[in-house]
Write a structure and sequence with these properties.
Elements (H helix, E strand, L loop, with lengths): L1 H16 L5 E17 L4 E18 L5 E19 L5 E20 L4 H4 L1 E17 L8 E18 L4 E20 L3 E6 L2 E14 L2 E14 L5 E3 L4 E3 L4 E13 L1
Antiparallel strand pairs: 1-2, 1-13, 2-3, 3-4, 4-5, 5-6, 6-7, 7-8, 7-9, 9-10, 10-13, 11-12
Length: 260
C-alpha cells in the first residue's frame, strides 16, 4: 500500500507538471469482447460476451524531452455461462451469471523519435495497474460470489506510424508484471486467498483518422492473464483448507472511440 501511495503521488506530480506546457488528449471508447476464464485442473470454464467503456487522458510535455503521463480507466460487464462440477464431482452448468470487472491504470513514459519527420515514433512506458473482478454465481443455488483483486506493473511499448491522408496506425504490446492478488470467496463464510504468482499480456492495433481537433478510431485488442495457485486458507465452517486453483483468462475484442 505504501508503494501504491508513493506511485500515485509521483504520478500526480508528473501530471501537474504538464499543466503549463503540454500536448494533452482525451479519448473515450465503447468496447465489446469475447471473454473466457478457465481453471484447467478443476475443469471449470466461464465464458460469455462483455460490453463496456474505456477512457484515457494522455499528456506529453515537450519541455521535458517528450515525457508523457497517461491515466486510463476501463469497465466491462456481461453475463457468463459456467461449465464445471459441483463439490461432489457431479457435472453442472449454469447460465446468466453476472460478471464484471474494472481497471484503473497510471502510465509514465517517453517518446522516442519524431513522427513529423520520420513518419513513426515509439512510446515505451511503465506504470501501475489495479484490476477488480466480480463474479456473481452466488445467485445460483449451487454457487457463491467471488471477487478477484490484482495489482500489477504494466511494461509496454506503443509504436505510432503516420500514414497518408491523416491516418495513424498505433501498435501496442504490453507485459503485465503481477505484484499481488487477493481472492475473496463467499463460500461457507468469507475465505480470502492471497495470490503471489502470475503475469498478463496485452496487444492491440489502433487505426485512427484525424479530423483536425478530433479523431475517430477502431482498435482490435487481446488481453490475457495467467495466475498460479493461491495460498491456502482455512475454512472453519468446512473444516478444511481451500485455495484458488491456477487459472487463465482470454479476452478478444474491439473498441470504437473518439479522441479529442
Amino acid at each position: 500500500m505504501k508503494k501504491l501511495s508513493l506511485f500515485l503521488l509521483l504520478a500526480s506530480a508528473f501530471a501537474a507538471a504538464y499543466a503549463q506546457d503540454k500536448n494533452a488528449n482525451w479519448s473515450v471508447a465503447f468496447e465489446t469482447s469475447s471473454y473466457t476464464y478457465e481453471e484447467p485442473s478443476a475443469g471449470v470454464k466461464l465464458n460469455g460476451p462483455k460490453y463496456g467503456i474505456s477512457a484515457e487522458y494522455l499528456a506529453r510535455n515537450t519541455q521535458t524531452g517528450g515525457l508523457f503521463f497517461a491515466a486510463q480507466f476501463l469497465y466491462m460487464s456481461g453475463s457468463v455461462t459456467y461449465n464445471g462440477a459441483l463439490f461432489d464431482g457431479t457435472p453442472y452448468s449454469a447460465g446468466g451469471i453476472k460478471d464484471y470487472y474494472f481497471e484503473s491504470r497510471f502510465l509514465l513514459g517517453m517518446t522516442l523519435g519524431n513522427s513529423d519527420q520520420t513518419g513513426m515514433d515509439f512510446w515505451p512506458y511503465l506504470g501501475l495497474g489495479y484490476r477488480r473482478l466480480f463474479n456473481g454465481m452466488g445467485a445460483d443455488q449451487y454457487g457463491y460470489d467471488r471477487i478477484s483483486n490484482y495489482t500489477y506493473l504494466p511494461a509496454g511499448m506503443r509504436a505510432r506510424f503516420r500514414l497518408v491522408n491523416k491516418w495513424d496506425l498505433i501498435l501496442t504490446g504490453e507485459y503485465d508484471i503481477f505484484l499481488s492478488g487477493r481472492q475473496e470467496s463467499d463460500i461457507a463464510g468469507a475465505i480470502i486467498n492471497d495470490q503471489q504468482t502470475g503475469y498478463g499480456l496485452r496487444a492491440s492495433a489502433q487505426l485512427a483518422k484525424n479530423f483536425g481537433g478530433i479523431s475517430l478510431f477502431v482498435e482490435p485488442f487481446f488481453r490475457y492473464w495467467n495466475i498460479g495457485d493461491s495460498e491456502a486458507a482455512y475454512s472453519y465452517a468446512l473444516g478444511e483448507y481451500l485455495y484458488e486453483p491456477a487459472n487463465h483468462t482470454n479476452e478478444y475484442g474491439v473498441k470504437i472511440g473518439i479522441g479529442f
